[in-house]
Amino acid sequence: MSAQIKNLDTIAFTAARRKVLDIVQAGVQSIDTIEVVKEKFVLDGDILSVCGKAYDLKKFKNIYVVGFGKASGRAVIAVEEVLGARIAEGLVISLTAASTEHIKVLAGTHPLPSPQNVTASEQILEICKKAKEEDLIICVISGGGSALFCGDMEELEQDTKLYTEYLKTNGEIIELNTVRKHISNVKGGGLAKAMYPATAIGLIFSDIAGANCDFVTSGPTYYDSTTIADAEKIIKKYNLGEFKLIETPKDKKYFDKVQNYEIVSNVKALESMFARAKELGVPAHIMTAACYSDAQQAFTDLERECKKGELVLAGGEVRVTVTRSGGTGGRCEYMGMAVLERIAPGETFCAFASDGLDNSNCAGVIIDSDTQKRAVDMKIDQVEHLHKFDGYGLFAALGKEQIFTGITESNVSDWLLLYKE
Question: From the CB of residue 243, how many other CB atoms can be counted at a distance below 10 Å?
């Protein structure tokens, strides 16, 4: 069963809010990890079908399962239901620990890597390196894996520095992950090299919009078209400091027996929400699946696109330049806080993190003109909260805006919805 909005009764106190939250829930259901794996990972006798491509399992001596990312722990439950005792060994690193009969799930840290991430990643590499030419490796890859899958302590130190400095910029995730590829021995195709010469299947849960699956978790199973020079340009552009860069594997033989499949993406989630809006009789359209502008510009674009009686949908990640430490909440709460004063009567706006964790236990916020009125009545200093990057504190004080789902165990970036009655 997919995650549910737990505090719906508290926050859905207008007809507009109920419609918007119903549509958000449809998006959450559409990315339910177990359900999408069951749909696209099917076994009939000895024939495994992955997104329609057939693999004859009789041709493989051993089947291994590895993975990393926010969706990986849940995904392997469905993978094991399909393959069962055919799995010789399995290990994934996710946000929480668990165990199936044949696959061990270890807990790691996010958004910063840790020594426990490195230890788990080393165990994953050991499994991959033991695989021979007659073996098959199923690799589950999802958003969050750039931190969770960390090849060694040098990468841990460099990635911690990189991520911390990058928060101070307004750069895009593709730029960040380009540099990550070049400070790692496992990203940017490094895992594909470790798996060679085994046959490998990558199950990709994309949190990056557009045709950019090679940047999900910094592309460990994809041939990397970027170079050290590309990474150096980004480091210089944002003045990120000094890093020890390495080149990613460029011999294409390492990728000949690797096939990656996009299992779920932000585009598919937006399409499901659009379909639910249609069922509710709400005229809607998808503005973009790749919104990477700052909060104010993103809201301006949504307002421009949204006519009276319509709903506009967007996916992506708004840019936030963090200029001081100690803030609370994530991108979604920040955007809600940043545009609160702009909400007009009749407008309902929602920003939602599809993993259920907007850098907190809150998944996002839903706001309207009533939110702004209560903030004024309660004498909440919105400017001070914004200056302190205290989105969680602001909306916790207001009491009727935060959305709680718990961990969805999926991740396809953020969703933005604007509805005008």
Answer: 17
Residue 2 has pLDDT above 90, yes or no: no
Whether the Cβ atoms of residue 146 and residue 187 lie closer than 8 Å to each other: yes
Cβ contacts of residue 326 below 8 Å, gap of 6+? 388, 389
Between these two residues, 315 and 172, which has the higher pLDDT value? 315
Beta strands in 29-86 (DSSP E): 41-44, 47-50, 53-56, 63-68
Which pair of structure tokens corresponds to residue 243?
């890093």
Q: How confident is the model at residue 172 (pLDDT cuts 50, 70, 90)?
A: confident
Strand partners, 43: 48
CB 206 within 8 Å of CB 262: yes
Do residues 151 and 185 make contact, with C-beta atoms less than 8 angstroms apart? yes
Q: Between vectors from CA 183 to CA 181 and to CA 185, what angle results, nearest 5°?
A: 75
Domains of the chain: 8-30+267-420 (3.40.1480.10), 33-264 (3.40.50.10180)
d(CA 22, CA 376) in angstroms, rounded, equals 28
Nearest-angstrom CA–CA distance, 34 and 179: 32
Residue 50 phi, psi dihedral angles, 5° rounding: -120, 110
Sign of CA dihedral 381, 300, 358, 406: positive
Q: How much is the pLDDT for 45?
A: 98
Show Cβ contacts of residue 270 under 8 Å, excluding neighbours closer than 6 positions: 27, 286, 289, 313, 314, 315, 415
Q: Which two tokens stand for residue 308?
A: 């009276």
When pLDDT is cut at 50, 70 and 90, the band that residue 1 belongs to is low
The pLDDT of residue 208: 83
Closest listed residue to residue 338, CA positions, set 377, 391, 378: 391
